[in-house]
Structures are given as structure tokens and as C-alpha cells.
Amino acid sequence: MEPDLSTSLGPLKLANPVVLAAGTCGWGLELAPYLPLEQVGAVTVKSLTLDPWPGNPPPRLAETAGGLLNSVGLENPGVDHFVSRIWPELRLRRVPVIASLAGRTREEYAAVADRLNEARGLAALEINISCPNVKAGGLTFGSRPEDAAAVVEAVRRKTSLPLLVKLAPLTADPVGVARAVVEAGADALTVANTVPAMSIDVTARRPRLGNAVGGLSGPAIKPIILRLVWDISAALPGVPLLGLGGICTAEDALEFLLAGARAVGIGTATLLNPRAALNVLKGLVDYCRRHDIRRLTELVGAARRRGREGAPGEGGEEPCSPGKG
Ligand SMILES: Cc1cc2nc3c(=O)[nH]c(=O)nc-3n(C[C@H](O)[C@H](O)[C@H](O)COP(=O)(O)O)c2cc1C
Questions:
Q1: Is 304 close to ligand 1, i.e. is its CB under 6 Å away?
Q2: How far apart are the C-alpha atoms of 140 and 79, rounded to whole Å?
Q3: Left, alpha or beta for 48 (phi > 0: left; psi -120 to 50: alpha)?
């Protein structure tokens, strides 16, 4: 029997848990010749701002051991361009589209969400409060629970779409930020954005990125983000999580599901192989068949339940029981 791969992130229903991550698949359309978009669970488009943003000076990408540094800086043509020029074509694809949005002020975030109401048929919004490459907005909103909540409240007032909030990995109180944004109206959390980082060219004796510092993605960050998923799913058991950070294989994805994520994002892996998401999906199906898993959501949080088996005094409670939330 074919395993049931369907999952949900609050009100957002997905046919399968594999989602293309913001900024790493363009508008999705560019990938379509290599990867039939309707086969992934959802496509997240690059973060949109109210006005076009030029992004940071080049070079914007640098490879590191086990990872990729980027300082793209949310370059994008602005939300109006997306709504009038890109959305008409993208909406014809039979795939849920999540629009990521960013801004310099909470009013800008709200204005972008308002404009996105004109893009009829969007599946969800994802608020990016965690980009390490921009001074205004970005990490400044994602670091403190009250700032993050204010942005989410402002966006929530403008939209009735399912609302995801993308968290930063390195903040003093990630669980506090997670709790605050859920109380402010987020339906689900995307865990997480890139890790602030840098690299220096010793021959030129200067930073490799034009912006000097950037965000680290890829396999190097997987254990860091996995731990965050683990912690947040324990602290907020009913809150659906989309886990992403260094997922390249089905085994990576399974780690995130077992830690408590209900869906997984594929980012840097797509830049190496545009079909990476489909390979992950196929590997998940194979795993379910091999282990007689009928519904993939049976696995969500299962590592915690396993971890507790036999632990005196801790048994019984299942903070991430499948089918919840
Ligand atoms: C080149 C590049 C551009 C990105 N642009 C965005 C963006 O516009 N908005 C956003 O929320 N995240 C952006 N990200 C972060 C990814 O969506 C993802 O959170 C991060 O790369 C971790 O996942 P990964 O290790 O699978 O790449 C970008 C990442 C890369 C590598």
C-alpha cells in the first residue's frame, strides 16, 4: 500500500511534507524544467518587500566546509511586481505557493501582506523576521519576543491566510520568540533561517562576502537547527513546525520529522541539485514502505517518544502526538 504522505501546518494542508525554501528556488518557475512543481508539498517564493530591494554588494555567495555562506540581502523586485507579473503564471501551477515577506518596519510588513491579498489563490504567508543579511528588519525583528510579536500582529490584521513565521536560529530566547509569535497569531513556525557567519580570504586578506558577514546554510547547520526543532516542539507541543536547515537526503528529513517537525524545507540542496527535493520525497516513500509506516505523520516527534521509553517517571506523555495541531 502507498504510504499517506499528507501533512498540515495548521490550516495549510500539504499533499506531502517537502517544501522548497524561500530564496533557494527563485519563483519556483525557474526550476520547473527540472522538477515538476506539482510534485512537491509547496513552493516558498523569495522574500518580498514593499519596494524593490537591490540586495547587498557582490560577492554574495561563498562555499565553506559543509555549507554555503550567502549575503543576498533580500534582493527582490517588490511585491507589486510579484503580484502583477509573476503570480499570474505561478498560480497556474498545481502547487501550494507560500509567499515570504519582509520589511524595514512593522508597517512595511503589514503593507506587503495587504498587497498579497490581491494574489488570489496563495496558500499561505511566511513572515521572514530572521534574515541575517539586512540591518533594518531581518534579525532585529526576530531577536526579541515583543518585536517579533508586533510584526506578526500587524500582518495578522491584514490577512486571513495561514501564517507561518520564520525564526532565527541564534537568539537569546528562541522558545520565547516562538511562543510570542504564536500568541500574536502565527499558525505555524518555520525553523529556521540561516546562521550568522563569515569567511575570510587569507590571500586577499578580506572577507569573502561583499557584505563581510552573511548567513550559513547547508549540512553544517543541520544539528543546530534540529536541536531547535527538538526544543521548540517540546516547549510548544501543539504548534506545527516546518523544519529546515541542511536537509539534503531523506535521512536528514526523517531526523527533522522524528524531532517534531510536520514538514521539511529544502534550501541549499536545491542549489546543488535542482531535483534534490524529489530525491528526498522518494527516500521518504521508500522508508515508509520498508518500515510499514502507513501515514508519514506517525513519525512526527517519534524520537521523543522513543527517548522516553523506559525512562522512569516520564512515560505516558506524548507532547507531539501525530495528527495533532
Ligand atoms: C542564496 C540563499 C537565499 C536565501 N534567501 C532567503 C529569503 O529570501 N528569505 C528567507 O526567508 N530565507 C532565505 N534563505 C534561507 C533559506 O530559506 C533557508 O532557511 C536556509 O538556507 C536553511 O536551509 P538550507 O540549509 O536547507 O539551505 C536563503 C538561503 C540561501 C542559501
A1: no
A2: 21
A3: beta
Residues sharing a CB contact under 8 Å with residue 231, sequence separation 6 or more, in sequence order: 174, 175
Per the rule left: phi > 0, alpha: psi between -120 and 50, beta: everything else, 161 is beta
Distance between CA atoms of residues 261 and 207, nearest Å: 35
Catalytic center residues:
131
Rounded to an integer, what distance in angstroms lies between the CA atom of residue 235 and that of residue 226?
14
Say how many C-beta atoms besides its own lie within 10 A of residue 88's C-beta.
10
Tell if the pTM clears 0.85, that is, is over it: yes
In this predicted model, what pLDDT tens digit does every residue of 205-257 receive, in sequence order? 999 999 999 999 999 999 999 999 999 999 999 999 999 999 999 999 999 99
For the Cβ of 159 lying below 6 angstroms from any atom of ligand 1, the answer is no
Q: pLDDT by residue (tens digit) across 269-321?
A: 999 999 999 999 999 999 999 999 999 999 999 999 876 554 443 333 343 33
